[in-house]
Queue: 3 jobs
Job 1
Amino acid sequence: MSSPKPAHNADTVTARLTTLPGWSYADGWIRREFATDGWRSTMLLVNAIAYLAEAADHHPDLGVHWGRVEIRLQSHDAGGVTDRDLDLARRIERLVHDQPVGWITG
């Protein structure tokens, strides 16, 4: 396996997040929370995110709750946020915006 890409500094991450509304940067992580219409929708979203993450060989931190999902992304091997995290965040956004209206909000 190749060595990890270096983590971006806070200014770079913040600038890149301007193309990802709803995402924020704090404590070395990019974060996003989605509201759902209940447990079933929460689990569908979590499983879809897990599928994307596994395909990207990535392991996000997820908070799973009755009506919401919290996502935190960081490349642990790089010690911060890399392009890989930002790419997964974009994929998650596409996934959410391609779903039926009403069951996930951000």
Note: The beta strands are 24-26, 29-36, 61-65, 68-73, 104-105.
Job 2
Amino acid sequence: MTENSTSYPPGSGTSHSKFLYGRLIWSNFGVHPLRSVLSVVAIGLQVFLILLIVGLTSGALNDWGARVEGVGADLMVQSPNSSIFFFFTNAVIPQSVVAKIEKLPGVDEVAPVITVVDTRTFGVIYGIDFARFNGLSHGFTFLSGGAFANPTDAIADDLAAQARRLQVGDSVTLMNRKFNISGIVVHGKGARFFIPLATAQDIASAENRVSMIYVRSTGNTDAVRAELEKSLPGYRIRSMAEYMSLMTSTSLPELRPFIRCFVGLGVAISFLVILLTMYTLVLERRREIGILKALGSSRIEICSLILSEALVMVVLGVVVGLAGTFGTTALLHHTSPTLQIQISSGWIGRSALVALAGALAGAMYPALRAAHTDPVEALAYE
């Protein structure tokens, strides 16, 4: 053994190789730091897009469903062609139906509601008979103020009041009309704003008509539903449990293609970013790869080196994407309290797998090209 040779303990060759490859992986990120950072950010962007879009849709659906459930009714009576989204529900039910429902056995409370949409904010506003609507559950929990005293009074929930910086006595514009805030309540009772039923009917030009009717039973909800279906043929009768089951992204087929498009976009971003990055990297490191092969590295080891670098980029990209997602979510919750975003652990895992699948697919060709590099040609490469 020569004086300058290095000896390793028996059995340490594998661990030394792993250490060497680990150093190569991290050192290669510093060769072109800007390119490495941009690649990581691009992967993080696709994670961010998937989580934010799914979080917005899931959050909006779950929040709307929870608010409808929070009204306190057991059943909901709607017109035959009504939508689960009240934005598209017209006031076509005669108000006289309310008296008919009240006479049915097992009915405890009936509350007619007319829904109107503020075209400025696209928010749904409930026109309610305060006493009936308040009687469906334990009633509104007022943080300040109280019920309507005038036709131009409105009640706001705490999130809407926070978003618009409203206090009792303030004036607010809803549907191009001025309303006075008579009370602020805890959120979770259907809409963000409530106005008198007669005022909403006047705005919607729906005299003596309502959009839907909430019904609370005395206990036997199924029996009351059967009576409603018998007495109101053609009307759509939904239980709150049924309504809640519909308010999920998986239950709405229209949303699935939308979400799949973003998932596909995420795969395409990861694939193209890693393919271009790793292909360029392999071309620039032909001499290094040739030296590794001349020293005895196998094709599998060369492939593993390239794929490991891609994997490190994915891990860093996922971390950047998650940081951006939760940072943006916190900012939106602060600036827009009514905007609900729900980031589930399941979608965090899916977005990471999407990034991983796209990255591995993109790194496969550069890895195979590197593995089949001829060491003689590579060492002669300038």
Note: Residues 1-16 have pLDDT under 50 and may be disordered.
Job 3
Amino acid sequence: MRPSRAADLDTIVAAATPAGRSAIALVRISGGRALAVLRSLAPGLARPPRARRATLVELRDPLGNPFDRALATYYPAPNSFTGEDVVEIAIHGNPILARKLLAASAAAGAREAEAGEFSRRAFLHAKLGLTEAESVRELIDAKTEAAALGALRRLSGSLSGRLGRVRESILLAVTLWTASIDFPEQAGEEDPGAIGGHLGDAHRELAELLRCAAAGARVFSGVRVAIVGPPNAGKSTIFNAMLGRDRAIVTPHPGTTRDTLEGEIELEGLSIILIDTAGLRESAEPVESEGIVRARDEIERADVVLYVREAGERWTPEDRDFWSELSGRPRLLVSNKIDVRLPEPSEPGVRVCAVSPDAPAVLRAAVAGILREEFHADASTQVVSGRQRDLLDRAEKEVARAIESLEGRAPAEISVSHAEEALGILRDLVGETTTEDALDRLFSRFCIGK
């Protein structure tokens, strides 16, 4: 059940293209009076335009004065993006003309749309599921090719398909439980094997979606790569080399970097946020000490850590302790200054002279290898939004509790309650029971006209 009545909606209008001069500007009208608004704007239109065919019209203001010639396209309900009657008017891309068209549309009875209101109406008319509606915003906001591809595939229903299979598995388990509780003579006693099989299928799918959630979020928002290590190891030089420009100050004196610096590049179709940090050492100097604290904070936030040290330098106990602390997470040892000394043959990682012409390619290739393994760019079924991750986590926990209750021979009424709770959470996830306040928060993040 959708949480709002689509029949009560009025007619809305908004520009569908950004403000500014361009070849054309597009204005979109949606609602029961969309065609009437068009007739008011183009009184010379002899008959209703053919569906989904561009029609040349002369636009007039409320006083009857012509102000542009445009192409109008009519999409009758329910075969439109919003599920309502929709008219799209392509005018010459002068902001003055766009403002006149919006004002004339308002005078003809169309209200200015709120942020995300067209997508919201598509959801209310069941043209989009809530996860697909979120994918619309993700597609618009995508900063890289991988993020856009992932959003497009989610918009095509890849995530909804997986969620549908999860719900079907849980529903089958609930049906078997309910039958054994309400109709024990006909259905027989509880069948733990069959019920557990359905719940196991659901739990595995939810766990896989959650496992991919972190990678999906990073595909959308960017992978944080922290460059850390002792002072004077060449971290800032490596940061500049990977960035392709001199963003960080480089000197031969230890402790030059006092704060964190960020720069963004693209690798493997992903947005990579490089972070240059202060050298890790004990320091009594207040500013440098604060920089070291911030460096350690960035290490905690980072998805990948590059540990830079001078090639051939002896490993101190502090070096070894720090490198060990990074185990279990994506990390890369970078032995720098190989033009001065070479590292031990057994030392892992990559070896570079950060100032050499080939250093950027070597470093980027090494990081790309980590990205392919940890944050693969195929985001077709990965979860991106925080709302989706939170609800999936709750659903996974409820299914796990149902399995635990089943295996512990708990009363069927207790076990089935966890499965039914998981179904309710999944209904929230796809938007069947989402509150109006939640929808307001979600669609307010969209741009006007979408």
Note: The longest strand covers residues 66-75.
